[in-house]
């Protein structure tokens, strides 16, 4: 049975071009078990492809008959080919992380086949330190980044001895817990509630747009145009690194803040350094668009997108690291207060209205040529606190690989795993040179906060 895409999910399809593929991904690093046989990697690959059917959403593709995919719906792919979606690769010697990130950069730049289910997974062997990697990408219309990470991690084992089906195996359909049905409401009441939500959501947006531009409370169209906000090419560069979560928690405690405050301050400091190195730092603060999940962790298998977005000042115009942190905290607190006062229906309406200009800018080609709605996307995705295993191999690290758009050439996403924060930085290879330097700038920014 066909399942129609929501307005938000369809928007990701309409925005996609060769230069802006609309998929998100994850790069997971695993340790080969010490007692593994010589054919271990081949056995992992067989585990991934020899499955008893394929579950949703992995089994579904897009069906559409109208231009612009306005009638797009998910349908089961009757000609599903697991060998197309799951691929086996190897790194050239010496198999350094540098070569791995270069490979992921190339793979992430390639669009998914619109005639097939919109996902691919690559088993990559030959990584130094007796490790291997798994890079998986899924279209944003299929799952948002947060749900995608939760979905993959929820299908890993909690011990080396436990054996679970591959994440896309049809066996997961029989393991799903029955979802509670929503209580039906009268159609007339639903229409009235919807109209009210749109009106209140519009009121929230108007209130924010009326605030002075120099206010720490941000909304769309309150960002300066920078080198981050140009047209992009299809080439990508991906950089990744782990930071100690106890170390970041200590810095947060030192400054009476949260882990997210320190994360945003690290990003603000790194962006200030990066733009200074290009002699392109604006006098006004950069503004980050920050996705906020509206679903619980156990709702990841529902598919689609369940997020809103808020705008936060990164205070890049402030030279003092501590002054920058305070400004970021004030901006984030204002966001939390406003969201906390809004019911979910109003948040949904507000989300559609604030993201519609983004979709229209991509479709019409205006993005990257006019003033930006914000400067970049920064995400913080909570992850598992316990050790996970994939067919007996321990998960060592899990890095998010997000997307960039015309006018928004950089994305920084972090995922927590056990005692680490796993940073994934991706940008347009041509528009933004030397993206890998961000890792050094992030470390320097954290060091400044610790010294303060």
UniProtKB/TrEMBL annotation:
Catalytic activity: an acyl-CoA + a 1,2-diacyl-sn-glycerol = a triacyl-sn-glycerol + CoA
SUPFAM superfamilies: CoA-dependent acyltransferases
Keyword Metal-binding assigned: no
Listed InterPro entries: Acyl_transf_WS/DGAT, O-acyltransferase_WSD1-like, O-acyltransferase_WSD1_C, O-acyltransferase_WSD1_N
GO molecular function: acyltransferase activity
Domain O-acyltransferase WSD1-like N-terminal as annotated: residue spans: 5-262
Keywords associated with the record: Acyltransferase, Glycerol metabolism, Lipid biosynthesis, Lipid metabolism, Transferase
EC number(s) stated in the UniProt entry for this protein: 2.3.1.20
Enzyme class: transferase
Domain O-acyltransferase WSD1 C-terminal span(s) in chain numbering: 304-449
Signal peptide: none
Transferase found in the keyword field: yes
Pathway: Glycerolipid metabolism; triacylglycerol biosynthesis; Lipid metabolism
Entry similarity comment: Belongs to the long-chain O-acyltransferase family.
Name recorded for this polypeptide: diacylglycerol O-acyltransferase
């Amino acid at each position: 049975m066909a399942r129609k895409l929501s307005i938000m999910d369809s928007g990701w399809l309409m925005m996609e071009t060769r230069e802006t593929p609309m998929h998100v991904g994850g790069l997971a690093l695993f340790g080969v078990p010490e007692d593994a046989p010589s054919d271990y990697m081949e056995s992992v690959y067989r585990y991934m492809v020899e499955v008893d059917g394929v579950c949703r959403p992995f089994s579904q593709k897009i069906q559409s008959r109208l231009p612009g995919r306005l009638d797009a719906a998910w349908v089961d792919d009757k000609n599903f080919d697991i060998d197309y979606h799951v691929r086996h690769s190897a790194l050239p010697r010496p198999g350094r992380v540098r070569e791995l990130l270069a490979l992921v950069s190339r793979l992430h730049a390639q669009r998914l086949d619109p005639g097939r289910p919109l996902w691919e997974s690559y088993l990559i062997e030959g990584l130094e330190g007796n490790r291997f990697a798994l890079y998986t990408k899924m279209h944003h219309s299929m799952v948002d980044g947060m749900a995608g990470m939760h979905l993959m991690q929820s299908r890993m084992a909690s011990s080396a001895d436990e054996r679970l089906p591959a994440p896309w195996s049809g066996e997961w359909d029989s393991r799903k817990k029955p979802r509670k049905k929503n209580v039906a409401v009268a159609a007339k009441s639903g229409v009235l509630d919807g109209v009210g939500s749109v009106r209140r959501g519009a009121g929230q947006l108007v209130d924010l747009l009326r605030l002075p531009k120099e206010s720490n409370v941000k909304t769309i169209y309150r960002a300066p145009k920078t080198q981050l906000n140009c047209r992009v090419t299809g080439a990508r560069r991906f950089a990744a690194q782990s930071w100690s979560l106890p170390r970041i928690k200590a810095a947060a405690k030192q400054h009476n803040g949260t882990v997210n405050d320190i994360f945003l301050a690290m990003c603000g400091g790194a962006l200030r350094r990066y733009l200074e190195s290009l002699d392109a730092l604006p006098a006004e603060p950069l503004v980050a668009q920050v996705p906020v999940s509206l679903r619980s962790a156990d709702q990841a298998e529902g598919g689609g997108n369940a997020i809103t977005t808020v705008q936060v000042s990164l205070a890049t115009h402030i030279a003092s690291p501590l002054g920058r942190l305070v400004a970021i905290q004030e901006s984030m607190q204002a966001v939390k207060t406003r969201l906390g006062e809004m019911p979910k229906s109003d948040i949904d309406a507000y989300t559609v209205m604030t993201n519609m200009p983004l979709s229209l800018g991509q479709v019409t080609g205006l993005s990257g040529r006019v003033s930006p709605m914000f400067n970049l996307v920064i995400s913080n995705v909570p992850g598992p606190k316990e050790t996970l295993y994939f067919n007996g191999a321990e998960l060592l690290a899990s890095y998010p690989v997000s997307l960039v758009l015309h006018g928004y050439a950089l994305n920084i996403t972090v995922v927590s795993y056990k005692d680490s924060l796993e940073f994934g930085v991706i940008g347009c290879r041509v528009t933004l040179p030397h993206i890998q330097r961000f890792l050094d700038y992030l470390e320097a920014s954290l060091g400044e906060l610790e010294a303060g």
